[in-house]
Design a protein that fits this description.
alpha/beta; 8-stranded mixed beta sheet
Length: 532
């Protein structure tokens, strides 16, 4: 493979302006992420510490290998959604414990006692998907008041999926280690109950289906918390606890030893070494990409700053030019890249479908770099079969079985989102850059469609258009769509696995590709029916 050339000039006024605006957007992202790391705030954090307990993030830090990493997932889930805290009261991500990549989940016990809310249930489900798809052992750090009862109608049914997922992973020989640091009440009691290994902290862990007040109300029995569900009772009487830890540090030690004792082995092929860095500075990504998703940029300039040695073997470079396809290595892992370089035409879709099939044939994971406003429209293109050609690519995306990772690096509109492995098509991981926009169509386009429809309707009725009312409606719909298409709106609702600094893209890809290779990497040659 040959290195990609670059046309980037850091002295170009456009580059300088892009870099400044994107750098400001990254600063906003860092502020939002800082909020998600605050837990319940100084008051509740201090109250937690005064009880002699470690903060949830401190527990994770001590669980991880000293030279390991932790890629936090969905850190802004719940942001600005029904007064739910940043992160939805849960911390989750991929981290290295005793040399093993694990899916780590911890209750943010300084936020409403770690009670699980509606978005927290969705986040738990997403983390479970990641653990199952990538065959990652789980480590749960539990201290939770259970379900957020005032919102139980939105939690009860989907909440059961979390317990189901633990047992299904166990059936598939992907174990979960549960460290119980405090209360794990009601449905939460089934988390340790269904985990493969449990560690309870002495004089702290309390696990019961119903606490003393509910037991008193239901049966008339009076019992204290320790006798009802304390760590010592469960370790010596009920058997729910496998290990009784003297304190939190002892529990973390036991957790690390249990993961190490699994003798876990990756099922996928190893990388070809760590991979050499790109020839070009990743910081230049901030100047390459416009913060305005309406302004195009060359996807090759992005590829050159995230792949090993900037080397790229392009497939069909002279055909279907608006979709760049080719092979490269990222941190030593071979990937097939599909990157948008404009709107999708029939040729682009056909090229993409063939490329996906080739990667499946050779068991090569896929990397989608999305910046797409959709498929080309108009009479000429409809007559040329844009629907059937687009469907062919979506068919390939839908039935591909190699791991896929999607980076939303710009626009993501309409069926283009689908064809480029959007969330609905279950990529193993999906991340967004701060400039990302996602919607059926943009606010201005939708307002324009509304304008045409209203004017046609008025003409049919022989009535004049109320220009003032129409202008107001267009303004309102544009504002609504602009808000709902932002990266922050999307990440709050788990449409992605997190917003990342573009400069961190290579590192994020390296971690997620390594996680993907914990499971088998196997393609398919079976596809649905193509319409010719």
């Amino acid at each position: 493979m040959r290195p990609l050339p670059t046309a980037v000039d850091r002295r170009d006024p456009v580059f300088i302006e892009n870099h400044a605006q994107n750098l400001a957007a990254v600063a906003v992202l860092q502020d939002e992420l800082a909020k998600s790391r605050q837990g319940g705030g100084p008051k509740y954090n201090q109250r937690h510490l005064d009880r002699g307990r470690l903060l949830p993030r401190e527990r994770i830090e001590m669980l991880l290998d000293p030279d390991g990493y932790f890629l936090e997932l969905c850190p802004l889930a719940g942001r600005d959604v029904d007064l739910i805290a940043h992160g939805a009261g849960l911390i989750g991500g991929v981290g290295v414990v005793s040399g093993v990549e694990c899916l780590i989940l911890a209750n943010e016990s300084t936020v409403q006692g770690g009670a699980i809310n509606e978005i927290g249930v969705k986040k738990t489900r997403r983390l479970a998907e990641i653990a199952a798809e990538n065959r990652l052992p789980g480590v749960s750090l539990i201290e939770s008041a259970g379900a957020d009862l005032p919102n139980q109608s939105r939690i009860f049914i989907p909440g059961g999926e979390g317990f189901r997922d633990i047992t299904r992973r166990s059936k598939d020989r992907t174990p979960t280690v549960c460290l119980v640091f405090g209360s794990s009440t009601a449905g939460g009691a089934y988390i340790p109950g269904m985990s493969d290994y449990t560690v309870f902290v002495k004089d702290q862990a309390q696990v019961f289906l119903a606490g003393p007040p509910l037991v008193k109300m239901a049966t008339g029995e009076e019992v204290d918390e320790e006798s009802l569900g304390g760590a010592t009772m469960h370790s010596r009487v009920s058997g729910v606890s496998d290990f009784l830890a003297e304190d939190e540090l002892d529990a973390i030690r036991l957790g690390r030893e249990l993961i190490g004792a699994l003798r876990w082995r990756k099922a996928g092929p190893p990388p070809n070494g760590p991979g050499d860095p790109p020839l070009y500075d990743p910081d230049e990504l901030l100047g390459v990409v416009s913060p305005d998703t309406r302004v195009p940029f060359d996807a090759r300039e992005v590829i050159a700053r995230i792949v090993d040695g900037s080397r790229f073997l392009e497939f069909k470079p002279g055909y279907g030019a608006t979709l760049v396809c080719g092979w490269a290595d990222v941190c030593g892992y071979r990937v097939g890249i599909l990157a948008n370089n404009g709107i999708l035409f029939s040729e682009s879709a056909n090229k993409g479908a063939q490329f996906i099939a080739l990667c499946n044939q050779q068991d090569i994971p896929l990397l989608f770099l999305q910046n797409i406003t959709g498929f080309m429209v108009g009479r000429e293109y409809e007559e040329g079969g844009i629907i059937k050609h687009g469907a062919k690519m979506i068919n390939a995306v839908s039935n591909s079985t190699v791991p896929a990772i999607t980076i939303m690096m710009g626009a993501s509109f309409g069926a283009g989102n689908y064809a480029m492995m959007g969330r609905a098509y279950q990529p193993r991981f999906l991340f967004s850059w701060p400039n990302h926009k996602i919607a059926v169509m943009g606010g201005e386009q939708l307002a324009g469609v509304l304008d045409i429809i209203k004017r046609q309707s008025a003409a049919r009725k022989g009535k004049p258009v109320n220009e003032e009312q129409l202008a107001f409606m267009k303004q309102m719909i544009t504002q609504q769509i602009d808000k709902e298409s932002s990266a922050y709106f999307a990440t709050a609702r788990l449409w992605d696995d997190g917003i990342i600094d573009p400069r961190d893209t290579r590192a994020v890809l390296g971690i997620t590709l390594s996680a993907c290779h914990t499971n088998t990497v196997q393609g398919t040659t079976s596809w649905g029916v193509y319409r010719h």
